Amino acid sequence: MAYRSDRRHRIIVQHNLKFAFPSWEEHRIAEVSRRVFHNIGRTLTEMVQCTQMSRSDLHARCQLKGEEHFQRALEAGRGIILVSAHLGNWSSGFSIWPAISGNGSIWWCGPLSPGAWIVG
Fold this sequence. Notes:
Elements: H1 2-5, H2 7-20, H3 26-51, H4 55-61, H5 67-75, H6 90-95, H7 97-101, E1 107-109, E2 117-119
Antiparallel strand pairs: 1-2
Helix pairs in contact: 2-3
């Protein structure tokens, strides 16, 4: 539905795909751009669902590799800095941090406003 109704962003996605993949034919550009919108819808749904989950629910659904390093730093009373690229539903990954640590702040810079830091 958003794919058909949001012409402006559909054109942006298609333009970006054409730029990134100049050898792709129109039907492939259209197919992949529809999948982009589908994935955005799925991610938004996940984000809404995450707001309704308890800390234990989040922890049960997320897999954290190397958690022992976080625990060791917390036990030593040291701070931890996590750096992540925007891959998949990255906000869910950051949402689990309070469930693991019991406290802390999350700071990130949104892609639409570079330099405008948000504290969560």
